[in-house]
Amino acid sequence: MGKVSTKENKCVYQLAREELHLTRADATTFIPDSAEFPGMDGVTESRLVKIEHGDVTVQPEDVVAMAKRYNKPELRNYYCCNECAIGKIDAPEVKFNNSVYEILVNMAVSLENVNHEKIRLMEILEDGKLDSDEMADYKKISRELEHISMTIEALQLWCEKMKLGKNE
């Protein structure tokens, strides 16, 4: 096994690799017919060094390969929210939690909150205008809808990890 990095402020990609106790060589090595060790489709060891040291701009295909290899689909969401120019504006970051029960409870609470407010939302949207007296209610309902979206995304990430049979 290679040296253990003592670098401070490691990037999320290096932390994901190290969590699996993989060297860069191990992470990028392709083992034929192995679902457990799929390699990293085009990411070489030298490229991985540059990504982890911040010497190159990580590309979406790099992140897809690392997310697959490390069984961390949340790396894709991290990239979109923190490194993609469009995603920084539009994509909410999902704080992944392995507890499916917590995810489902959060979703149920948010759905119930929105269900209680659905008549008010229809009243606000009825005339196609957002009046100043409607703004506070609209913002509250919008936050709940955003929370539902986040819990759905977290549930999708959890399900993806389950599908791969490696949820911890």
Radius of gyration: 20 Å
Quaternary structure state of the chains depicted: single chain
Average pLDDT across residues? 85
Biggest sheet details: none
E-strand count: 0
> Strand-and-helix sequence, N→C?
HHHHHHHH
The global form is elongated
Judged by helices, strands and strand pairing, the structural class is: mainly alpha
What is the helix fraction of residues, given as a range?
55-70%
Keyphrases for this structure?
62% helix; elongated; 2 domains; 168 residues; 8 helices
Outline the structure in words.
The chain has 168 residues and is an all-alpha fold. The protein has two domains: 12-90; 100-163. Helix content is 62%, strand content 0%. It contains eight helices and no strands. The protein has helices at residues 12-19, 24-28, 45-53, 60-70, 74-82, 85-90, 100-126, 135-163. Helix 4 (60-70) packs antiparallel against helix 5 (74-82) and helix 7 (100-126) runs antiparallel to helix 8 (135-163). It is elongated, with a radius of gyration of 20 Å.
Short structural summary:
With 168 residues, the chain is an all-alpha fold. It has eight helices and no strands. The radius of gyration is 20 Å and the shape is elongated.
How are the SSEs placed, and which strands pair?
Layout lengths: L11 H8 L4 H5 L16 H9 L6 H11 L3 H9 L2 H6 L9 H27 L8 H29 L5
Helix pairs in contact: 4-5, 7-8
